[in-house]
Amino acid sequence: MNIPVESMLFFQLTAILILASFIGFLAIKFKQPLIIAFILSGIIAGPDMLNIVSEQYQDVIETLAGFGITLLLFVVGLKLDLQLIRKMGSMVLVVGIVQISITLTLGVLLSLLLQFDFMASVLIGLALTFSSTIIVVKLLSDKRAIDSLYGRIALGILIIQDLAVILVAIVITALAGTGGEFSHHAGGINIFLPLKAFAIIVFVGLFIRYIANPITKFMSNNSEFMVISCISFAIAMAAICEYLGFGQELGGLLSGIALASTPYNNIIAARLSTLRDFLLLFFFAHLGSNMNLANIADQILPALVFSLFVLFVKPALVMIVMNFLKYRKRTGFMTGITISQISEFSLILMAMGLSSGFIDQGIMNLTILIGLITMGVSTYAISYGDNIHAFFANHIMSFKQENSTETSDKVEREYDVIIFGLGRYGSAMAKLFKEMGFNVLGVDFDPDAISKAKKTGILTIYGDAADPDFLIHLPLDNVKIVVFSFHHYMTGPFITDLRRTLAKSLREHGYSGRIAATSHNHEHDKDLHKHGIDITLSPFDDAALYGAKQIVEIIK
Question: How far apart are CA 399 and CA 393, in angstroms?
Answer without folding.
Answer: 5
